[in-house]
Amino acid sequence: MHELPIITLGGIRFDLSSIIMIVVTSIIVLILARLGTSRLSVNNPGKMQNFLEWVVDFVSGLIASTMDMKKGKSFLMLGITLIMFIFVGNMLGLPFGIAFEVTEPMPIFGITAEELHHAHETGKHIALSFWKSPTADVAVTMGLAAMIIVMVHFLGLTRNTHHYLKHYVEPHWAMFPLNVIKEVSKLLTLGLRLFGNIYAGEVLISVILMAGWVGIIPLIVWQGFSVFVGAIQAFVFTILTMVYISQATEHGDEH
Question: Which of the two ends of the chain, N or C, has the fewest CB atoms closer than 10 A to its terminal CB?
Answer without folding.
Answer: N
